[in-house]
Structures are given as C-alpha cells and as structure tokens.
Predict the structure.
Amino acid sequence: MLDLSGIVTDSIVDGPGIRTTIFSQGCPHHCEGCHNPETWEFGTGTQMEEERLLQIVEENPLCRGVTFSGGEPFAQAEGFAKLARLLKEKGYEVASYSGYTFEQLLSGSDAQRELLASIDILIDGPFLLSERSLELSFRGSKNQRILDVPASLAAGKAVETTQVRWQGES
Ligand code: SF4
C-alpha cells in the first residue's frame, strides 16, 4: 500500500517519452525552494494498492515508462519496490527521483536497497536552490545526477546514464 499525493498519466517532464508519474506523499528533506511542499507531510495522501496503480498505468497505451516522484519515494521504499517489480514484469522502464544520493541509499535500509535493485534510472540528490538551473533535462539543480542504476549497483558507485534520450533529446 502506498500513500500518494497524486498521479499524472501523460507526463513529458519526468523523463523521456510519455510517462506516468506517481507522486509519493511525505518528504523528510524540506529543500528550500521545493516545488511541492504540500507533499512534505507524511500520512496525509491517498492510499492506493500497488496492483491498482499498475492497472492505472496500463490504461494509457502510449505510456512506456513510469517515474516515481515526490515527496520522497524512498521513504515508502517497500511499497514502491513492489510496484517497480510489477511494472518491470510488464516491460515498463522505471525511474525514480530521490532527495537522497545514491551513496546514501546504498547504505540505507534493506527496503531502500531493494527499491534501488528494482529500478532502471535514479535521479538523485536534494533540490539545491543555489545550484538551480533551467537548462537541465528532468532535473532542478546541477547537483542532481541521472544514474544508470543497474550499472551503478554493478560498479558499487554512481554511474551516470549514457542514454541520449535521458539527456533531453529524443
Ligand atoms: S526532496 Fe523533492 S519533494 Fe522533498 S523537499 Fe526536496 S525538492 Fe521537495
């Protein structure tokens, strides 16, 4: 069961192509300049089963990828890991934002490592107002990286994706 602040089924701003973006409710980071401060408070969203979310994603035949956003998806790592596994079984590319860095998540909880192991792309790190840039694809500030998660896990360190589509080109 996940606690969500919203779902957008035709996003073009949270990764390449038409994606479903699932916004978790609750965020411990409280970044200055956050665009979604209404997602900070825990336990105040809409409860949804992972299986129902898969159905909602499948209702859009144009959707090829799913992005977890927030709030902080890794604060509900167990539920998002379950959802990621269901989505991967159906062939969707799964990306997640996190206010934690890859390094922090690697030494995080078992559930956080399980979620890492279940996704393709991680856009990591908090939003830093001092590093804000409007030039970046799919990111708000320059400290954030777009990581190839399987390659990062294999290497034991952060590996940025080389996929051109994640650089903002089609
Ligand atoms: S991690 Fe994201 S949702 Fe959380 S405070 Fe920072 S910018 Fe806002």
In short: Helices lie at 50-58, 77-89, 102-106, 110-117, 149-155. The CA atoms of residues 65 and 93 lie 5 Å apart. The chain has a mean pLDDT of 96. Residues 2-167 form a domain with the TIM Barrel fold (CATH 3.20.20.70).
